[in-house]
């Protein structure tokens, strides 16, 4: 690397790093991008994502009759975030206000100019806890990228790779940063280990065998290395027991093995302030991948609102712990039972209409931008192919024609108490008796009726209410749901230029942070809760801010 004089070093070739590099390239700067994985992993976690993006008052929303605004979105964000730490949330709140402005007035156009397109239907993710002034999205805002995560990566990777061909960007893969180099209080470079070459496919766990050492310097260094999602030791160490209950014994990772959180500690050792470590985002609808890519590979079910949700003891979860409503409150309710899993009970009709799986590889029709295949897959009778494959092969799925047989199968895979068929039957029958009218005292059925007033849900996402025990809608299906680790909501504190801050609040000269390592901006832009569609967007927004600020700093 001695033959390449870089203006800036980017540590991490994920989405935030690519966005920052793209901005640096546009400003005419020379960039060295380091990553501990091989070139096959360019784009990092974003490649595996569903590609969901939160936009506010978008053309897609307006065409569907959704009335959204900056004011409504900001209220939802702040109510969900629950910022309550005067010092640690100082910059997080500023990032939140700036991000919602970006999502309202700039984000869609910024991505559209790069060639990114979204599907016409807008999803209603994280519907909230049942209060207008509480957590959740008041309106549908989840825009699905046409091409999912790989397309989000592509629109930034292509101009960066073109710059590589021109000699303006240099990649150093299999370079693991172990230390930030400081000179007279200024971060001037990085030092680390060259790992042995790897030709493994994207996502596979690679070796950490050393093959050499390196030390590199530049006028500005960006850390964009992701969070701690696959490092369960760190997850447990930072787990908010007082807020969510004890950490689960069984956790399955929704991110590849290289999402290890190393650079958070390395940045802190160099003087960076790390805040809000106890804030994290883990899903309760995790299932083991029957065809895994990384160790203990987990997939999240993105559910519609109709499945009945039972805890490990067989008791229906209390309102508003419905599928797709309030992730962390449902996580707390599940863990309060003393067990770390729960159950969906549903019908084939609900599965076909309401089950979607997270991950680009689980949605090949949309990922491949194949309109014909997408229309056929989503409109055809039966569940989409990937969903049906999990139903047939997944270790967490039980299928039966009657409730007694279903409960027997559930008990065979339970990690806790044996379920009693009469207890489940009583609760299911009580719910089923409410279906006879278009109104109900059952809050979940009321939520389903509300969802079906939105054309996007009625057409493509929410099944027509029916009795769970009606054989015409069978077979019956149960899914054992596990805790799936995913996102780090706290991290390195930064100002609005993505400059890393020290404990005294002053910038640490020469060092920047973007993406999940920075809590997606400011050390925790989401606060305690995410609205969904905001993780990729946070990488884009903070990466853009970092790239532009670094370009100015090295003029």
Automatic annotation (TrEMBL):
Top-level lineage group: Bacteria
InterPro entries given in the database record: FAD-dep_OxRdtase_2_FAD-bd, FAD/NAD-bd_sf, KsdD_DH, Succ_DH/fumarate_Rdtase_cat_sf
A Pfam family recorded for this sequence: FAD_binding_2
GO molecular function, one term: steroid dehydrogenase activity, acting on the CH-CH group of donors
Keywords: Flavoprotein, Oxidoreductase
PANTHER family for this protein: 3-KETOSTEROID-DELTA-1-DEHYDROGENASE (PTHR43260), KSDD-LIKE STEROID DEHYDROGENASE RV0785 (PTHR43260:SF1)
Family annotation (NCBIfam families): PRK12834.1
Protein known as: FAD-binding dehydrogenase
Source species: Amycolatopsis carbonis
Lineage of the organism: Bacteria, Bacillati, Actinomycetota, Actinomycetes, Pseudonocardiales
